Amino acid sequence: MSTIEAAITPADNLRQGFKDVFSQLASGVSVVTFWRGNHLHGFTATSLTSVSLQPPRVLFCVAQGSQSYAALGAGTCVGISLLSAGQRELSDRFARKLAPGAYEDVALTGPDERAPLIAGALGHLTADIVELIPSGDHAIVLCDVTAAQAAGGAPLLYHARAYHTLHPRS
Ligand SMILES: Cc1cc2nc3c(=O)[nH]c(=O)nc-3n(C[C@H](O)[C@H](O)[C@H](O)COP(=O)(O)O)c2cc1C
Fold first, then answer.
1. Cα(115) to centroid of ligand 1, in Å?
2. Which residue among 49, 73, 129, 137 has its CA within the 20 to 30 Å range from the CA of 146?
3. Domain over 28-161 is classified CATH 1.10.10.10
4. Is it the case that residue 6 has pLDDT exceeding 90?
């Protein structure tokens, strides 16, 4: 057995299998945004899930090692933008760890200044964080939705570590 083979443990194999399985789960792509001082900040997320209708509540998961986790707390107001097929570049940008001020040119929309919302998205939610539940290396973030607006259109999808969009069935 080579040194490299000997270094791969069952835990490594499980972690890789876990990542491979979830790479097969096709998802819509959202960006969670918020004001960090005077600066727009945010991160790309596929973990957005609807939790409750009464009250309207969603969750997303955020890595505890991220800049966003360090900036979010109970009471923070966040904007959630469901990206459209043409917004792949924005998804890539918000998936990088960029310094404060790096998102100043991103076009925003909406009258609610408590949370930024990305222009041209398929749908927007404004939500107040009610609870952050640390779990493993991430935290589950529960948010109460205070405004919801759908525009519709073709979605940006993520599957098998690549971007896609829908093709109508013939
Ligand atoms: C398609 C896609 C989906 C992602 N989904 C999540 C997610 O749900 N939660 C998360 O914490 N990070 C997710 N990430 C990674 C973050 O976007 C990335 O770590 C980002 O750099 C964090 O930025 P920050 O450190 O400035 O907060 C995703 C990345 C991509 C490309």
1. 19
2. 137
3. no
4. no
| Ligand 1: centre distance to CA 62 (Å) | 7
Q: What average pLDDT does the segment 155-165 reach?
A: 98
Question: In 3D, which of 68, 146, 66, 143 has the Cα closest to residue 114?
Answer: 146
For residue 130, what are the contacts with CB-CB under 8 A and spacing of at least 6?
Answer: 57, 74, 142, 143, 144
- Choose among 132, 130, 117, 134: nearest CA to 34: 117
3-state SS record for 25-78: CCEECEEEEEEECCEEEEEEECCCEEEECCCCEEEEEEECCCHHHHHCCCCCEE
Distance 43 CA to ligand 1 centre (A): 5
Q: What is the pLDDT of residues 73-118, one digit of tens each?
A: 999 999 999 999 999 999 999 999 999 999 999 999 987 789 999 9
Q: Cα separation of 40 and 77, whole Å?
A: 12
pLDDT of residue 5: 62
What angle (nearest 5°) sits at the alpha carbon of residue 42, between those of residues 38 and 45? 165
Written as six digits, the tokens of 153 are: 């259109």
Spell out the domain ranges in the chain: 28-161
What φ, ψ does residue 166 adopt, rounded to 5°?
Answer: -80, 140
Which single residue is written with the structure tokens 């966040």? 78
